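> forwarded from #structure-qc
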């Protein structure tokens, strides 16, 4: 039996969802507003952690139903304590009042309303191995005949002292595929029936990317 939770008790709790894509809408003044459409929840509370038992207060939620054979036996055993549904994603949110929650409660878009500001976290689009010009906007070397430093990094370290490359040096490597957080994104529309959230602006990642949405402080 699923128990639905009052939105007033989950101000500090977030939701999980997937990015559907971007589009544009017109406001009341006729201005074009770029928006991102997100499929959010419903999420189920799978575990409640308290300072007495775990050392901190947090609520673990699950999202995304998957076939049973796609999860391991320890994962299925953990989820059977709270719900009979095998869930793909689990995430914790720190809260100050874990006693107001119950295992098995369902959280949906009733906790959000138009005009509210949210913070969204997700992984950026991976772009593979990239050089310094594309990754950090470095300038290139001379393109004239005889130059052998067109897109090379050049010198990367000092001489005798200290005689090594210092940590944090900007060099070629993987571009994207990193966790990114965007704060103060305004909610334009909320469709609780279809679990659709329309956010002004862009959010990290490509279409189908997993996102974490919570109210901004």
């Amino acid at each position: 039996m699923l128990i639905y939770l009052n939105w007033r008790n989950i101000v500090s709790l977030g939701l999980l969802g997937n990015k559907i894509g971007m589009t544009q809408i017109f406001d009341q003044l006729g201005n074009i507003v770029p928006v991102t459409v997100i499929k959010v929840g419903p999420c189920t509370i799978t575990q409640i952690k308290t300072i007495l038992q775990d050392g901190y207060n947090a609520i673990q939620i699950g999202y995304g139903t998957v076939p049973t054979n796609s999860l391991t036996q320890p994962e299925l055993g953990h989820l059977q304590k709270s719900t009979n549904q095998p869930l793909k994603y689990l995430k914790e949110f720190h809260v100050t009042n874990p006693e107001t929650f119950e295992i098995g409660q369902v959280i949906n878009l009733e906790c959000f309303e138009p005009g509210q500001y949210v913070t969204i976290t997700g992984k950026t689009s991976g772009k593979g191995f990239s050089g310094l010009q594309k990754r950090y906007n470095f300038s290139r070397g001379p393109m004239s005949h005889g130059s052998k430093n067109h897109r090379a990094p050049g010198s990367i370290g000092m001489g005798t002292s200290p005689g090594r490359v210092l940590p944090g040096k900007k060099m070629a490597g993987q571009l994207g595929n990193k966790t990114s957080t965007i704060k103060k994104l305004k909610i334009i529309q909320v469709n609780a029936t279809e679990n659709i959230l329309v956010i002004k602006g862009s959010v990290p990642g490509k279409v189908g990317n997993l996102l974490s949405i919570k109210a901004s402080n």
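QC bot note: Residues 3-142+169-215 form a domain with the Elongation Factor Tu (Ef-tu); domain 3 fold (CATH 2.40.30.10). Residues 1-11 have pLDDT under 50 and may be disordered.
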